[in-house]
Amino acid sequence: MRSRFSGFYRPTNEEFNQLWKECIFVFDTNVLLHVYRYPQQAREALMNIFKHVSDRTWIPHQIGLEYHFRLNEEISKQNRAYEDLQVSLRSKLGEIENKLNQYSRHTNLKVEVLVDKLKKGINEVSQDLVEQKETHPDLVELSNALLTLFEGKIGEAYDSEKLEEIYKDGEKRYDLKVPPGYEDAKKKKDHTKYHDGILYQDQYGDLVFWYQIIDKAKEINKPVILITDDNKIDWWQEHKGETIGPQPELIHEFKRKTNGLKFYMYNSEQFVKFANQYLEIDKSETNIEQVVEDIKKSKIIALEEDSVEKIRNKYSRSFKPREIKQTSLVEYSKEYGAVIKLKSKTFTNIALKDFKDNLSDVYPNQFIEVHKISERQEWIAILVVFSRPIKTSFAKIKKFFETHPVISLYDVIEFEIIDQERENTYNTLTREMEV
Description:
alpha+beta; Alpha-Beta Plaits; PIN_8; PIN like domain-containing protein
């Protein structure tokens, strides 16, 4: 039975040992780009593993293409973070200073003293940012190091005829929810890239490199380990919010099309952990547990930054006090959490902090971040990022705030959340009140 349904079973220790000895390693675009965000120890540990397996590494053309299309943006984002923070600090200083000046005639408040202390503190932080920027790793140098490691290890591109064949196949697969890639069907529909005379459809990117992996495995007759930080259910099998392993159908399809070869997947932190178990890597000066923890934290931060930026860029100009584009916002909130529209009777930064603290009372085991998407008059559109999928309802959140002491700060007008256990279903929960 196990041999017939191997995708549903975790490989044995013996099978894992054999797989790690014989396989080629494929690194997804997100894994390569996340290296630019890791702290030094995690970055060096991963680069060390890349070097160790460089002669057994292969990068599908589709992954190489996506990496190069996003590389400059990633480097620019990391480099400009320091300036963005300084601008934000100055903006907040002005906001708070204006508020304090409203009480300049207060009987007891020493506004000038408070403003001077604020300026001094922000100047110190700004100077720290300047010093930290000076020690920031040279990301162009890192890019060149990766380029050297993967030189000659990039696969050939499919021609236009082959791609069109895959796109047609993808339409049928996505309708049937056959992995991988169907989770990108709506999010990336009509998004394209043009390169070297060929137009690429982004919604089929995962399927294209999946076929390229299968073709490579057949060509060299070797099993494959894919390292990806894509956490969607068209790659990973989940049960009650917990990731069990690769989608069984991926393992079965790979086995079927490669004459019995094995396929398995890890995310970055799993790969670091097991690489140090199965490969002969010098780890005397590396704290593997700390590296794994650093990677986890960096990925959470990256997830938040990317989700907020996507939503803010797309909707900040179109947000109106009486309206949020419901379906589109849910599309982006699907992986990250909830989009909420509040009517606040207090300062935005205070409202966001209090809202986060209050929501943490509802979900004490979640790592929660709250980010402003846009603001008009008293209205705030915010993104709430959860560390794990949650099951909730508008009624539950609304009831909590109705019975909470600080409800005077908020009217929860709209709440949207995705129940990730309901396959590909957008469950939008909306409540409207008169502005």
